Amino acid sequence: MEIIRAVRWSDDGRAVRIVDQRLLPEHYVERDLKTLDDVIDAIRTLAVRGAPAIGIAGAMGVVVGLDRHIGEPRAQLANRVHAAAAAIRATRPTAVNLPSALDRMLRRLDATAGDSQCLLEALRAEATTILDEDREMCQRIGEHGVALLSEGARVLTHCNAGALATGGIGTALAPLYLAAERGIRVEVYVNETRPLLQGSRLTAWELARAGIPVTVLTDGMTASLMQARRIDLCIVGADRIAANGDVANKVGTYALAIVARHHAIPFYVAAPTSTLDPATPSGDSIAIEQRAPDEVRRIGDVLTSPDEACVYNPAFDVTPAALVSAIVTDVGVHRPPYDFTLASRTRPPLAGTRPLATSP
User: Fold this and answer.
1) Is residue 359 part of a domain?
2) Nearest to 133 by CA among 328, 273, 334
3) Catalytic one among 232, 239, 246, 317?
4) Does residue 169 sit in the same domain as residue 30?
5) Are 186 and 307 found together in one domain?
6) Is 239 an active-site residue?
7) Which of 4, 6, 12, 299 has the largest CB neighbor count within 10 A?
8) What is the pTM of this model?
Protein backbone atom coordinates (compact mmCIF):
# COMPACT_ATOMS: atom_id res chain seq x y z
CA MET A 1 0.00 0.00 0.00
CA GLU A 2 1.61 3.25 -1.16
CA ILE A 3 0.89 6.36 0.92
CA ILE A 4 1.98 9.75 -0.33
CA ARG A 5 4.29 12.19 1.51
CA ALA A 6 2.71 15.59 0.98
CA VAL A 7 5.22 17.84 2.73
CA ARG A 8 8.84 17.34 3.81
CA TRP A 9 12.29 18.84 3.48
CA SER A 10 14.01 18.72 0.10
CA ASP A 11 16.97 16.37 -0.22
CA ASP A 12 19.45 19.14 0.59
CA GLY A 13 17.30 20.42 3.48
CA ARG A 14 17.18 23.96 2.08
CA ALA A 15 13.62 23.95 0.69
CA VAL A 16 10.16 22.68 1.53
CA ARG A 17 9.19 19.86 -0.83
CA ILE A 18 5.45 19.54 -1.48
CA VAL A 19 3.13 17.67 -3.78
CA ASP A 20 1.41 20.40 -5.82
CA GLN A 21 -2.19 19.49 -5.09
CA ARG A 22 -3.60 21.94 -7.63
CA LEU A 23 -2.48 19.61 -10.42
CA LEU A 24 -3.93 16.34 -9.10
CA PRO A 25 -5.19 13.89 -10.20
CA GLU A 26 -4.05 14.52 -13.77
CA HIS A 27 -0.46 15.37 -12.94
CA TYR A 28 1.72 14.35 -10.00
CA VAL A 29 4.29 17.11 -9.49
CA GLU A 30 6.60 17.72 -6.55
CA ARG A 31 7.77 21.29 -6.01
CA ASP A 32 10.57 22.72 -3.91
CA LEU A 33 9.60 25.95 -2.15
CA LYS A 34 12.90 27.79 -1.90
CA THR A 35 11.82 31.24 -0.71
CA LEU A 36 9.38 32.76 1.74
CA ASP A 37 7.29 34.03 -1.17
CA ASP A 38 7.14 30.49 -2.58
CA VAL A 39 5.79 29.20 0.73
CA ILE A 40 3.21 31.98 1.08
CA ASP A 41 1.97 31.47 -2.48
CA ALA A 42 1.77 27.68 -2.07
CA ILE A 43 -0.35 27.96 1.09
CA ARG A 44 -2.61 30.71 -0.24
CA THR A 45 -3.27 28.99 -3.58
CA LEU A 46 -3.78 25.53 -2.02
CA ALA A 47 -0.74 23.96 -3.64
CA VAL A 48 -0.24 22.67 -0.11
CA ARG A 49 -3.42 22.38 1.98
CA GLY A 50 -4.95 20.60 4.95
CA ALA A 51 -4.67 22.03 8.45
CA PRO A 52 -1.74 19.88 9.69
CA ALA A 53 0.15 20.16 6.38
CA ILE A 54 -0.03 23.95 6.22
CA GLY A 55 1.13 24.09 9.83
CA ILE A 56 4.17 22.02 8.90
CA ALA A 57 4.81 24.01 5.72
CA GLY A 58 4.46 27.25 7.67
CA ALA A 59 6.97 26.14 10.30
CA MET A 60 9.44 25.07 7.62
CA GLY A 61 8.76 28.26 5.69
CA VAL A 62 10.07 30.35 8.57
CA VAL A 63 13.45 28.66 8.05
CA VAL A 64 13.59 28.71 4.24
CA GLY A 65 16.14 31.20 2.97
CA LEU A 66 17.60 32.00 6.39
CA ASP A 67 20.90 30.29 5.63
CA ARG A 68 21.88 33.15 3.32
CA HIS A 69 21.70 35.48 6.32
CA ILE A 70 24.06 33.51 8.57
CA GLY A 71 26.57 35.92 10.02
CA GLU A 72 24.05 38.68 10.60
CA PRO A 73 23.62 39.90 14.17
CA ARG A 74 21.28 37.68 16.14
CA ALA A 75 18.72 40.47 16.62
CA GLN A 76 18.56 41.13 12.89
CA LEU A 77 17.97 37.47 12.06
CA ALA A 78 15.32 37.25 14.78
CA ASN A 79 13.52 40.18 13.17
CA ARG A 80 13.54 38.29 9.88
CA VAL A 81 11.97 35.28 11.59
CA HIS A 82 9.21 37.40 13.14
CA ALA A 83 8.47 39.06 9.80
CA ALA A 84 8.33 35.70 8.02
CA ALA A 85 6.00 34.25 10.65
CA ALA A 86 3.68 37.25 10.38
CA ALA A 87 3.52 36.98 6.59
CA ILE A 88 2.81 33.24 6.66
CA ARG A 89 0.22 33.64 9.43
CA ALA A 90 -1.82 35.99 7.23
CA THR A 91 -2.28 33.47 4.41
CA ARG A 92 -5.24 31.49 5.79
CA PRO A 93 -7.21 32.43 8.91
CA THR A 94 -9.42 29.47 9.83
CA ALA A 95 -7.19 26.49 10.62
CA VAL A 96 -5.58 26.73 14.06
CA ASN A 97 -2.59 24.53 13.17
CA LEU A 98 -0.85 27.25 11.18
CA PRO A 99 -0.71 29.92 13.91
CA SER A 100 0.03 27.24 16.51
CA ALA A 101 3.05 25.98 14.55
CA LEU A 102 4.29 29.53 13.98
CA ASP A 103 3.90 30.40 17.67
CA ARG A 104 5.89 27.31 18.51
CA MET A 105 8.69 28.40 16.18
CA LEU A 106 8.76 31.83 17.82
CA ARG A 107 8.93 30.27 21.27
CA ARG A 108 11.92 28.22 20.11
CA LEU A 109 13.47 31.43 18.81
CA ASP A 110 13.05 33.12 22.20
CA ALA A 111 14.40 30.08 24.07
CA THR A 112 17.57 29.72 21.97
CA ALA A 113 20.81 31.38 22.98
CA GLY A 114 23.77 31.95 20.72
CA ASP A 115 24.54 33.47 17.34
CA SER A 116 22.60 33.35 14.08
CA GLN A 117 23.98 29.91 13.23
CA CYS A 118 22.64 28.52 16.52
CA LEU A 119 19.28 30.13 15.80
CA LEU A 120 19.02 28.59 12.35
CA GLU A 121 19.93 25.12 13.60
CA ALA A 122 17.41 25.33 16.45
CA LEU A 123 14.60 26.52 14.18
CA ARG A 124 15.31 23.87 11.56
CA ALA A 125 15.29 21.19 14.28
CA GLU A 126 11.99 22.52 15.65
CA ALA A 127 10.31 22.45 12.24
CA THR A 128 11.58 18.89 11.71
CA THR A 129 10.18 17.87 15.09
CA ILE A 130 6.80 19.35 14.15
CA LEU A 131 6.82 17.19 11.00
CA ASP A 132 7.91 14.05 12.88
CA GLU A 133 5.30 14.57 15.58
CA ASP A 134 2.62 15.01 12.95
CA ARG A 135 3.49 11.65 11.43
CA GLU A 136 3.27 10.02 14.85
CA MET A 137 0.03 11.86 15.56
CA CYS A 138 -1.57 10.50 12.40
CA GLN A 139 -0.61 6.96 13.37
CA ARG A 140 -2.17 7.38 16.82
CA ILE A 141 -5.39 8.79 15.40
CA GLY A 142 -5.53 5.77 13.14
CA GLU A 143 -5.02 3.40 16.07
CA HIS A 144 -7.85 5.01 18.04
CA GLY A 145 -10.15 5.36 15.04
CA VAL A 146 -9.76 1.90 13.55
CA ALA A 147 -11.71 0.52 16.52
CA LEU A 148 -14.77 2.33 15.13
CA LEU A 149 -14.65 0.29 11.91
CA SER A 150 -16.21 -3.13 11.54
CA GLU A 151 -15.64 -5.62 8.74
CA GLY A 152 -17.27 -4.35 5.56
CA ALA A 153 -17.91 -0.85 6.94
CA ARG A 154 -19.22 1.66 4.42
CA VAL A 155 -17.66 5.01 5.29
CA LEU A 156 -18.54 8.46 3.97
CA THR A 157 -16.01 11.29 4.08
CA HIS A 158 -15.88 14.88 2.88
CA CYS A 159 -13.02 16.92 1.43
CA ASN A 160 -9.53 15.51 2.02
CA ALA A 161 -8.19 14.67 5.46
CA GLY A 162 -5.72 12.08 4.30
CA ALA A 163 -2.01 11.85 3.67
CA LEU A 164 -2.19 14.83 1.33
CA ALA A 165 -3.44 17.02 4.21
CA THR A 166 -0.82 16.02 6.80
CA GLY A 167 2.77 14.95 7.29
CA GLY A 168 1.69 11.33 7.81
CA ILE A 169 -1.19 9.02 6.89
CA GLY A 170 -3.88 11.59 7.53
CA THR A 171 -6.53 12.17 10.16
CA ALA A 172 -9.96 11.08 8.91
CA LEU A 173 -8.35 8.62 6.51
CA ALA A 174 -5.82 7.23 9.00
CA PRO A 175 -8.25 4.61 10.41
CA LEU A 176 -9.06 3.52 6.86
CA TYR A 177 -5.39 3.02 5.99
CA LEU A 178 -4.82 0.96 9.15
CA ALA A 179 -7.96 -1.07 8.50
CA ALA A 180 -6.73 -1.93 5.00
CA GLU A 181 -3.28 -2.77 6.37
CA ARG A 182 -4.86 -5.16 8.88
CA GLY A 183 -7.13 -6.89 6.41
CA ILE A 184 -10.35 -5.21 7.57
CA ARG A 185 -12.47 -4.64 4.48
CA VAL A 186 -13.86 -1.10 4.17
CA GLU A 187 -15.60 0.74 1.35
CA VAL A 188 -15.32 4.52 1.12
CA TYR A 189 -17.71 7.04 -0.37
CA VAL A 190 -16.33 10.52 -0.88
CA ASN A 191 -18.16 13.72 -1.70
CA GLU A 192 -16.72 15.68 -4.60
CA THR A 193 -16.44 18.65 -2.24
CA ARG A 194 -17.29 21.65 -4.35
CA PRO A 195 -16.10 24.08 -5.50
CA LEU A 196 -12.47 22.87 -5.62
CA LEU A 197 -13.22 19.13 -5.66
CA GLN A 198 -10.79 18.09 -2.92
CA GLY A 199 -12.81 14.91 -2.45
CA SER A 200 -12.86 13.70 -6.04
CA ARG A 201 -9.45 15.07 -7.03
CA LEU A 202 -7.49 14.26 -3.88
CA THR A 203 -9.19 11.77 -1.54
CA ALA A 204 -10.35 9.47 -4.32
CA TRP A 205 -6.90 9.67 -5.91
CA GLU A 206 -4.95 8.78 -2.77
CA LEU A 207 -7.35 6.00 -1.69
CA ALA A 208 -7.34 4.43 -5.16
CA ARG A 209 -3.54 4.68 -5.19
CA ALA A 210 -3.51 2.77 -1.88
CA GLY A 211 -5.87 0.08 -3.22
CA ILE A 212 -8.85 1.03 -1.02
CA PRO A 213 -12.25 0.80 -2.80
CA VAL A 214 -13.64 4.32 -3.26
CA THR A 215 -16.76 5.75 -4.89
CA VAL A 216 -17.12 9.45 -5.76
CA LEU A 217 -20.41 11.30 -5.17
CA THR A 218 -21.52 14.80 -5.97
CA ASP A 219 -22.23 16.63 -2.73
CA GLY A 220 -26.00 16.52 -3.25
CA MET A 221 -26.14 12.71 -3.47
CA THR A 222 -25.34 12.05 0.18
CA ALA A 223 -28.87 12.15 1.58
CA SER A 224 -30.32 9.61 -0.85
CA LEU A 225 -27.43 7.23 -0.20
CA MET A 226 -28.07 7.42 3.54
CA GLN A 227 -31.79 6.99 2.98
CA ALA A 228 -31.00 3.78 1.08
CA ARG A 229 -29.03 2.58 4.16
CA ARG A 230 -25.79 2.31 2.23
CA ILE A 231 -23.67 4.33 4.69
CA ASP A 232 -22.64 3.00 8.11
CA LEU A 233 -20.67 5.98 9.46
CA CYS A 234 -19.10 9.31 8.52
CA ILE A 235 -15.55 10.41 9.32
CA VAL A 236 -14.33 13.92 8.51
CA GLY A 237 -11.37 16.05 9.49
CA ALA A 238 -11.28 19.49 11.12
CA ASP A 239 -9.44 22.77 10.75
CA ARG A 240 -10.35 24.13 14.18
CA ILE A 241 -12.30 22.67 17.11
CA ALA A 242 -13.64 25.15 19.65
CA ALA A 243 -13.53 24.57 23.41
CA ASN A 244 -17.15 23.38 23.39
CA GLY A 245 -16.59 20.88 20.58
CA ASP A 246 -17.96 22.93 17.66
CA VAL A 247 -16.04 21.92 14.52
CA ALA A 248 -14.90 24.09 11.62
CA ASN A 249 -14.26 22.00 8.54
CA LYS A 250 -14.60 22.25 4.77
CA VAL A 251 -17.90 23.84 3.74
CA GLY A 252 -20.56 21.17 3.34
CA THR A 253 -19.60 19.34 6.53
CA TYR A 254 -22.46 20.92 8.49
CA ALA A 255 -25.05 19.74 5.96
CA LEU A 256 -23.53 16.26 6.03
CA ALA A 257 -23.77 16.16 9.84
CA ILE A 258 -27.44 17.21 9.75
CA VAL A 259 -28.33 14.49 7.25
CA ALA A 260 -26.36 11.89 9.21
CA ARG A 261 -28.23 12.79 12.41
CA HIS A 262 -31.58 12.50 10.60
CA HIS A 263 -30.69 8.99 9.49
CA ALA A 264 -29.14 7.96 12.86
CA ILE A 265 -25.70 7.47 11.32
CA PRO A 266 -22.64 8.11 13.54
CA PHE A 267 -20.76 11.26 12.60
CA TYR A 268 -17.10 11.26 13.71
CA VAL A 269 -14.45 13.96 13.52
CA ALA A 270 -10.76 13.01 13.44
CA ALA A 271 -8.16 15.65 14.28
CA PRO A 272 -4.92 16.13 16.20
CA THR A 273 -4.85 17.79 19.61
CA SER A 274 -3.18 20.76 17.88
CA THR A 275 -6.53 21.42 16.18
CA LEU A 276 -8.28 21.82 19.56
CA ASP A 277 -8.49 25.53 20.35
CA PRO A 278 -9.34 26.18 24.02
CA ALA A 279 -9.04 29.92 23.40
CA THR A 280 -12.07 29.82 21.09
CA PRO A 281 -15.17 29.23 23.23
CA SER A 282 -17.54 28.18 20.43
CA GLY A 283 -17.91 28.02 16.68
CA ASP A 284 -19.38 31.51 16.66
CA SER A 285 -15.89 32.84 17.35
CA ILE A 286 -14.17 31.05 14.47
CA ALA A 287 -13.14 33.28 11.56
CA ILE A 288 -14.34 31.75 8.30
CA GLU A 289 -12.12 32.30 5.29
CA GLN A 290 -13.88 33.79 2.27
CA ARG A 291 -12.30 32.80 -1.02
CA ALA A 292 -12.30 34.20 -4.56
CA PRO A 293 -15.60 34.24 -6.51
CA ASP A 294 -14.01 32.63 -9.56
CA GLU A 295 -13.50 29.38 -7.62
CA VAL A 296 -17.30 29.02 -7.89
CA ARG A 297 -17.89 30.99 -11.07
CA ARG A 298 -15.49 28.97 -13.22
CA ILE A 299 -14.27 25.42 -13.71
CA GLY A 300 -10.80 25.93 -15.07
CA ASP A 301 -11.16 28.49 -17.84
CA VAL A 302 -14.85 27.70 -18.42
CA LEU A 303 -17.41 30.18 -17.11
CA THR A 304 -20.24 28.32 -15.34
CA SER A 305 -22.21 31.31 -14.04
CA PRO A 306 -22.59 34.87 -15.29
CA ASP A 307 -20.00 37.40 -14.22
CA GLU A 308 -22.85 39.63 -13.05
CA ALA A 309 -24.01 37.09 -10.44
CA CYS A 310 -22.80 37.53 -6.88
CA VAL A 311 -20.89 34.61 -5.37
CA TYR A 312 -20.85 33.37 -1.76
CA ASN A 313 -17.73 31.27 -1.26
CA PRO A 314 -16.83 30.45 2.35
CA ALA A 315 -14.09 27.84 2.57
CA PHE A 316 -15.49 26.36 5.80
CA ASP A 317 -18.62 25.97 7.86
CA VAL A 318 -19.13 25.14 11.53
CA THR A 319 -20.79 21.93 12.72
CA PRO A 320 -22.30 22.28 16.21
CA ALA A 321 -20.92 19.87 18.80
CA ALA A 322 -24.42 18.45 19.32
CA LEU A 323 -24.20 16.79 15.89
CA VAL A 324 -20.79 15.16 16.51
CA SER A 325 -20.90 11.57 17.81
CA ALA A 326 -17.24 11.56 18.86
CA ILE A 327 -13.97 13.38 18.22
CA VAL A 328 -11.00 11.09 17.59
CA THR A 329 -7.63 12.62 18.48
CA ASP A 330 -4.14 11.28 18.95
CA VAL A 331 -4.80 10.82 22.68
CA GLY A 332 -8.12 8.99 22.42
CA VAL A 333 -11.78 9.14 21.51
CA HIS A 334 -13.63 12.08 23.10
CA ARG A 335 -17.39 11.77 23.51
CA PRO A 336 -19.97 14.42 24.42
CA PRO A 337 -20.33 16.56 26.37
CA TYR A 338 -17.14 18.09 25.02
CA ASP A 339 -14.99 20.42 27.09
CA PHE A 340 -11.59 21.33 25.69
CA THR A 341 -11.06 24.41 27.85
CA LEU A 342 -8.04 22.74 29.49
CA ALA A 343 -6.63 21.33 26.28
CA SER A 344 -3.50 23.47 26.19
CA ARG A 345 -2.62 23.48 29.87
CA THR A 346 -0.89 20.10 29.80
CA ARG A 347 1.26 21.06 26.81
CA PRO A 348 4.67 22.29 27.96
CA PRO A 349 6.32 25.10 25.99
CA LEU A 350 7.98 23.90 22.80
CA ALA A 351 6.14 20.58 22.98
CA GLY A 352 3.93 19.18 20.29
CA THR A 353 0.86 17.11 20.74
CA ARG A 354 0.83 15.65 24.23
CA PRO A 355 -1.79 13.93 26.39
CA LEU A 356 -4.52 16.20 27.66
CA ALA A 357 -7.60 15.85 29.84
CA THR A 358 -10.13 13.96 27.73
CA SER A 359 -13.83 14.54 27.65
CA PRO A 360 -16.07 12.01 29.39
Assistant:
1) no
2) 273
3) 239
4) no
5) yes
6) yes
7) 6
8) 0.89
